[in-house]
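User: Show me a protein chain along with its predicted structure.
Assistant: Here is one chain, sequence first, then structure tokens.
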Amino acid sequence: MVRSVVHSRRAELRPVASEEIDEVHHVFSDPDVRRFLCDGIEHDREWAAGVIAKSRDLFSDRGVGLWSARGRGRPEIIGVAGFFEFSAPGRLELLYALLPAHWGAGLATEIAGRIIALGLENGVDPIRASVDAPNTASRRVLARLGFEEVGREPADPPRTKWEQVHFLRSRDAPGGGSA
């Protein structure tokens, strides 16, 4: 069963909803966010609507999807985090994206840790993640959360701009993944 609201120490997470399309689009459209997450491509509002619809389907089918993140007690969305199918149908990967004003304070690690716990509660094990090789900040987040690098895939334009670094984290890995 999907919980409507979950919390980390400093954030509130809710399954992304259609009425949040403009805020979700804003997160994915931020140039610093989309640099790696979307390989620099600016997607339109309809793309964001498709992401929200796919997330709703994932929640229905798998019990996990994407959550909008807010600072506790704050109305505005500061990021999006959860699980999404990137490279292959049925293969869920961890995703986290925060607006740059919220970088550098450990919030990505905190939110991703909470998302990992939700994934494990819903049978996502191991947890997979992929990061563009030059995205050293995200690679550090994954290391703090107990992920291990398991492979690399060369850039494959136009599908991917950067070399992809693949990670796995099992239920028993140290670091993160707690409420």
